Amino acid sequence: MADGEDLWFLGTLVRIKLDGRETAGRLSAFEILYPRGAAPPLHSHPQDETICLLDGELTAWIVDPDLLGREGTDPSAWLESCAQRCTPGAVVYASGGTPHTFRVESDTARVLTLSTPAGIEDFVRALAEPARWPWLQPPADGPRVAPDRLEAVERELGVVRHGPPPPQEG
Fold first, then answer.
1. Is 168 among the domain residues?
2. Residue 11's domain is classified under what CATH number?
3. What range defines the domain where residue 49 resides?
4. Fewer CB within 10 A of the end CB, N or C, for the chain?
């Protein structure tokens, strides 16, 4: 990772490359190093998110909201029908408000994430701490952030959880 603000964010290493304050709120860019198995809950936020996979492998899910609310539909139907396996060079786009998630399949994955407009970096900063060294921190014994703090930041910044993270591959 090149110059930028290094943060430990929920078990990842984030380097903010371009902040929304530098772009009049139009765009932010940050590089993230994820460990194997990293997988956020199925979620959405007001910003469009573009993920460019630089190194590693991941599976991404961009989920039609209709799949989540249909009466009589298996709540995890999106797992099989929306999975996209990604290798270096892949680009994944989730428009604002669209439920999405991913799971890291390789030992690590490095991505460049773009937020349009800017704002996703505010979520990262609200839950992160300054990185004391430029590599992944050891896994925590318990939750990295208190659940009530996480929920408060989600509420404040318009992040919506639509479901749990995708299960780890067996």
1. no
2. 2.60.120.10
3. 5-160
4. C
Count structural domains, the chain: 1
Q: Do the Cβ atoms of 47 and 120 come closer than 8 Å?
A: yes
Residue identified by tokens 């198995």 is 37
C-alpha span between 51 and 11 (Å, rounded)? 18
Q: Chunked in runs of 10, what are the mean pLDDT values of the chain (170 residues)?
A: 80 95 96 96 97 98 83 73 96 97 98 98 95 84 84 97 87
Does residue 87 form part of some domain? Answer: yes
Nearest to 37 by CA among 103, 122, 115: 103
Size (the chain), residues? 170
- Cα angle value 153/69/62 (rounded, 5°): 65
**Which helix (H) or strand (E) element contains residue 38?**
none
> Residue 167 falls within a domain, yes or no?
no
The span from the CA of 96 to the CA of 94, in Å, is 7
Assigned domain for 170 exists: no
| 121 within 8 A of 26, measured Cβ to Cβ | no
